[in-house]
Amino acid sequence: MNSTYLWYTTRASGIVTLVLLTLTMVLGLATTSRARARNWPGFAQQDIHRRISIMAVVFLAIHVVTTILDTYVHIGWSAVVVPFTSPYSRFWVGLGTIALDLLVAVFVSSLLRAHLKPGTWRGIHWLAYASWPIALAHTFGVGTDSTEHWVIALGALCVLSVGLALVWRMSATAKRRAMLSNETSHVVPPTRRLTTANTKGGRDDA
């Protein structure tokens, strides 16, 4: 296959993967914050999140394969799984490898979710939040078109989207904790109710 076609495919699939990972992050933050749209059931939101995650893995696989097959630069198959072993742009490619390893761990754990303890699955799934900024750094560190205005704008939009989703999640979590705290403060403990009842009974007898 022509190296030029491979190069274009590598760059395009990398950019698409970043966008899909950003959407996955935003939906993931919205799902974990239990935020629901009025006409958008929770199961639909989770299903879309799952589908976009699968699409991100597919484009990521295309990105990796075309990068290795491109003969213009030599990266090597070992650099796909072992960070910082690529002879080309070792640091930035190494970041991409770390992001890939984390995403593979998350994807495999999702497939095996029924066989994992909830705490174990949740802990592995948190790796997705670490993989996104690493993938973003990889995109702009090794990308030959990272200085293009539209790529910079796209990256800024991705950062802004995840930032707003994170703020939204933190706000929703704080409101939920405040509501639970208020509900708890209005609940009269059983011992207090019993003491109050006995007091009233003693007054009536008097």
Number of helices: 8
**What ranges have pLDDT less than 50 throughout 5 or more consecutive residues?**
none
Structural class: mainly alpha
Shape: elongated
- Integer-rounded radius of gyration: 25 Å
Number of beta strands: 0
> How far apart are the termini?
100 Å
Which range does the strand content fall in? under 5%
- Estimate percent helicity: over 70%
Q: Sheet bearing the most strands, described?
A: none
Give the rounded overall mean pLDDT.
83
Q: Give the SSE order as H and E letters.
A: HHHHHHHH
How is the secondary structure organized here?
Layout: H1 3-32, H2 42-69, H3 78-81, H4 90-111, H5 118-125, H6 127-142, H7 149-185, H8 190-205
Main attributes of the structure:
206 residues, mainly alpha
3D structure, described in words:
The chain is mainly α and 206 residues long. Helix content is 78%, strand content 0%. The chain is built from eight helices and no strands. The protein has helices at 3-32, 42-69, 78-81, 90-111, 118-125, 127-142, 149-185, 190-205. α1 (3-32) runs antiparallel to α6 (127-142). The longest helix is centred in the C-terminal third of the chain and has 37 residues, at 149-185. The chain starts with a helix and ends with a helix. The model has no long low-confidence stretch (mean pLDDT 83).
